[in-house]
Each structure stands twice: as structure tokens, then as C-alpha cells.
Amino acid sequence: MVALNKLFFKSIALDLLANKLRSLLAILGVLVGTASVVALMSSSQLATTHALSQFKKLGTNLLSVYVIAKNNMGNRDRDDQSFQLSDMPKLKSYSRRIVHAAPYVINGQSMHFEGMPLHGDVVGVTERFLDITKIHIFRGRFISDLDHQKFYCVIGNEVAKKIHYSPSAVVGKQMHVGNFIFTIIGVLKKTQNNFFVPVNMNNSIFIPIQASYILNTNTRIQNILVQLRSSADMDEAKNSLQTKLQRLLPTQKILFLDPQQLINLIKKERATYADLLIAIGCISLVVGGIGVMNIMLVSVVERRREIGIRMAIGATQSDIVRLFLTESVMLTLFGGLLGVVIGQLTSYGLAFFHHWEFYFYLMPILLGFTVSVLVGIISGFYPALRASRLNPIEALMME
């Protein structure tokens, strides 16, 4: 029995090698589809893992508080009920779970350095912003609470590159922000963007929050970063702040963004993206499967005499089905194997390019193999069935 099986597979291998170009074209279609599915799934999982790892570095004890006018969420005018810097001591007293709190404001202002226009955000911050967001100074110093309304600024890493000065040389230089001249007192290290702060840290400049009121008289605090104790219950902290802030600011709407919400949002977004990519890869596999079926149909037509001889010496219909079905599965399995390897190499290259940590994920590999086998069975079934139904007498008469 073992000898017969060896002979059976040897016969299939010889048939496939006898038509190298045809076999190669069949393999190529499945290879591209499998490589697409594996690469897209692996890359999506790598991107999700990287995003979550960067997020976890910030800590899972951060809470973002948004203070927005109830009546008109787009209204930027100051009103007596808006959150004030003088309210910060009250905020800290609202919960023993709060370690630090840092309000910040984002202003859209024109920026120029020695006549060269710069594009980015102007962020008014306090001293605690540095500690909570875990950004680091490359040269100089960060904004201090003692700076008050002084026209000092700290520039992001990308802003420093645009200026074409070395980080050491740029400290002490002056730049125009709006209608005012600010002195550069520090340069940030290149940093990952913070999920809680909706600006590109590397392409922003940071000024004392009090100076923001001079830049724009309509400035009001709508964003507060809160750092909780590591053992604090996030829901309890949110409920406590919600109750007390709503009492302090009855005309404002208080919204929160916590780590779990962000994690769920990232996972949902990546899952949707992954589903779309897998669908695209599956379309490639379907096209590859159609190619395999066409090639197997051509093979049946060309080998009708061989089929007739096999039937004449005792081969049953099930033997013929098994022969062509095995050929189809071998083609797609080989294509799937190469596709998995190429897909993994592609995802590794993407991870290397983006400086992500690379991991092997079992699911894309298993899916790649499984789908390639299924494509082989589905695309090979009709040609195999057609071959088994040939009349042996008519088949023997074929040239």
C-alpha cells in the first residue's frame, strides 16, 4: 500500500514537472493571494501591537478631561463659566486619586523664524505637562510655572530641523508667533505622539499657558490631562470629577477619555482595517483559484488519452477524481507555502521600515495554509469530476 501511494505521488509530481510553465502559473496565482492575506494580516496585527505598546508606555492611569460649552460646542468665546487656571487647586482637591493635573490649550497661530514660515500647533502648557506626557528635553529646558506670561517657547524636534540650526545653537534665538516675539528656551527630543493630546508633538511649539491668553483673548481651557495614582479606580475617579466639575461649571459639558476607551477604539479601528485587507487578499486568492481551475481543465483535455488508459486498466472514477484533486491541492499547497514565506518576509520588512518590534503570529500562517488547501480542493473539484466522467472508449480514441 505504501509503495502504491509513493508511486501515485511520484506520478503526480512527474505530471506537474512535465508542464513546468503551466504549473508555475497556477502556483503564482495562489502565491500572490496567500502572500497578500498573510502579509496584510500580520502587518495589521503588528501595527496594533505597536500602537498598544506605545500607549502602555504612557501609563494606564491617565485621564483626559474635556470641558465644552453645552449650548454651542463650536463657540470659542470666553465666558465666566469656563474652566480657569485658578480652578486647578480645586480640581486636585476633588479626588485623592489625582497625582498631577495639567491643563493645555491649542492655538492656531502663524509662526516665522528669520522670515521662514513654519507650520504647526502652538500649545499653551504648564510645567506638569512634561511629566504627564513623558516627553523629554533634548536641549535647554521646558516651560516652568514661574514663566507666567513671559514670551518663552520650547520647539518640537521637527520644528528644530526645519530651522536648520543645531539644537544647541537654536536655544536663545527668537521667533515670531502671531504678533509677538518668543525666545526659544528648549528643544524636545523626538517623541511618539500622545494618544491623549491631539497634536503632533514633534511639529509643535509649547508656550506658557498664561501667554496663550495674550496671543488670543478668546482662549479658554478645554483640555486637562489628569494623572491618577496607579491603584486608583478609573470609573470612581471619573464619577467623582464629573459630579464636582459639573457643579463648578454648570453651563459646560464634561467629557472623559480614559485608557480603556482608547484601547477599545484602537482595536476596533484595526479590526475594521484588517477585515478590509483580508477581503482584498481573498479576492486575490479567488482569482488565483480560478486560474488553477482553468489550468486543470486544460490538463484534463490534454490528458484524455491518459485518462482512458487508466480507466481501461482498472482505474475507477474515484481514482481519477483523487488524481486530479491531489494535483490541484499540491499546486495550491506549494503556492501557499511560498506565499506564507513571502508574506512573513513582507511584514518583517514593513516592521523593520517602521521600527516596530517583529512577532510571528500563528493565525495568519494557519489561515494561509488552510485557505490555499481549500482553494485547491474547490478549484480542482470540477476538473477532477469532469475527468472522471469521460467515456474510456472515447478517451482512448483521442489523439
Q: Overview of this structure, please?
A:
Helix 9 packs antiparallel against helix 11. This protein has two domains: 14-56 and 264-397, no CATH class; 81-250, no CATH class. By secondary structure, the chain is an alpha+beta fold. It has helices at residues 2-18, 20-57, 88-93, 128-133, 157-163, 167-170, 209-215, 234-248, 259-302, 304-312, 317-354, 362-388, 392-397, and strands at 62-69, 98-107, 111-113, 116-118, 121-125, 137-140, 152-155, 174-177, 180-188, 204-208, 223-228, 252-257. The chain is elongated. Strands 1, 2, 3, 4, 5, 6, 7, 8, 9, 10, 11 and 12 form a twelve-stranded mixed sheet that branches.
Helix and strand pattern: HHEHEEEEHEEHHEEEHEHEHHHHH
Largest sheet: 12 strands, mixed
Shape: elongated
Cα(first) to Cα(last) distance is 33 Å
The assigned structural class equals alpha+beta
The total count of helices amounts to 13
- According to DSSP, the number of beta strands is 12
Helix content: 55-70%
Question: If you compute it from the alpha carbons, what radius of gyration comes out, rounded to the nearest whole angstrom?
Answer: 33 Å
Protein traits:
399 residues; alpha+beta; 2 domains; 12-stranded mixed sheet; 12 strands
Please describe the topology of this protein.
Layout: H1 2-18, H2 20-57, E1 62-69, H3 88-93, E2 98-107, E3 111-113, E4 116-118, E5 121-125, H4 128-133, E6 137-140, E7 152-155, H5 157-163, H6 167-170, E8 174-177, E9 180-188, E10 204-208, H7 209-215, E11 223-228, H8 234-248, E12 252-257, H9 259-302, H10 304-312, H11 317-354, H12 362-388, H13 392-397
Parallel strand pairs: 5-10, 7-9
Antiparallel strand pairs: 1-11, 1-12, 2-5, 2-11, 3-4, 3-8, 6-9, 7-10, 8-9
